[in-house]
Amino acid sequence: MSHGWSGNPYDVYNDPDGPYYNPYYYGPPARPAPGSAVAALVCSSVATFACCNVLALPAVITSAMAVSRSARDPRGARALTVWSWALFGGAMAVAVVYVTLMVAFGV
User: Membrane spanning segments where (predicted)?
Assistant: First the structure.
């Protein structure tokens, strides 16, 4: 029987052959948070609720789906994140054109 890293024969917690040894005592390392998906969710939510931009609602839905799928299906979550950023950009472009036209025509 080895004596673990400490060299103490009574240290059964650090002994790889001991009954209480668990290399994952603190659990496996956590997966990184899907930063781009969370950012897309925050930006599209602010655009939808603060700016009353209803066209950004599909971006909210797709980014929420991307956040929920990030642990199970990273490739699908990445694709949904790209779609949510594209939908957000399109909604903001339409909003900018709308505001520009409203200012240009003095409405």
Answer: 37-61, 82-105
State both tokens at 35.
């930063």
The alpha-helical segments, DSSP class H, found in 1-107 are 35-49, 57-69, 74-104
Distance separating alpha carbons of residues 90 and 82, to the nearest angstrom = 12
Q: Give per-residue pLDDT as tens, 50-62.
A: 988 899 999 999 9
User: Between vectors from CA 17 to CA 16 and to CA 22, what angle results, nearest 5°?
Assistant: 45
Would you kindly state where each structural domain of the chain is located, as residue ranges? 1-30, 35-104
pLDDT of residue 64: 95
